Amino acid sequence: MPALRVIPCLDVDGKAGVVVKGVNFVGVREVGDPVDMAARYEEEGADEIVVLDITATPEGRGTFVEVVRNVASAVTIPVTVGGGVRSLGDASALFKAGADKISVNTAAVRNPNLVVELAREYGTQSTVVAIDAKRSGGRFEVYIGGGREATNLDAVRWAEAVEKLGAGEILLTSIDRDGTRLGYDTELLRAITSVVKIPVIASGGAGELKHFLEAALAGADAVLAASLFHFGVVSVAEVKKYLKERGVEVRL
Predict the structure, then answer these.
(1) 50: pLDDT strictly greater than 70
(2) Which of 102, 137, 204, 248 could be bridged to 243 by S-S, CB 3.0 to 4.6 A?
(3) What pTM value is reported for the model?
């Protein structure tokens, strides 16, 4: 097993160029400057940074290339970028701006062949599919458009499909847990990690140190958090120390 990665996430209002955070994908408020925050997280020991333009798809515009360029130039760790990526051209602009990986969600659901094209052009290691899932009856349903649009797609089946299409990694977010600090949805995590071989990043709900351990035990290859880090509840370094003391291999 590779070492578990600890990844801060910067949800950015691409038009305003600021980091924001909400609860259950709504009620967002401004948090800070993405460049300053990315640099601070690298100093704390973050393994990667995920930068998501959460308003690009709802507003029907392209991803914030300038913000990506500024963040990528401020850090040396890998940067994954998502939000508003609809084509190879969009991806190309972001890679040129310094992105190491591209994450697609809505566009992948609407055009699954985009995942094939991205993997073929840039490699599976640079192709991430984000899955935003919400409990619906006895299953988990995929949502797109920034969590606003139900798809009737089963999240577990969709995870299997994107792996076959060429995705090298899944960014799995529980909409039910997003911003709540109630812990990751370990049932969702186990359902996905049990059917795919590619790495799965756990996202949505981290609220205290034990939640990161729970995600690791549920099969996550990486743990992602936003508000917990943004508001100083815990630091990246504290998460790594906690996990290491409990036998989870982490990058130092």
Answers:
(1) yes
(2) 248
(3) 0.94
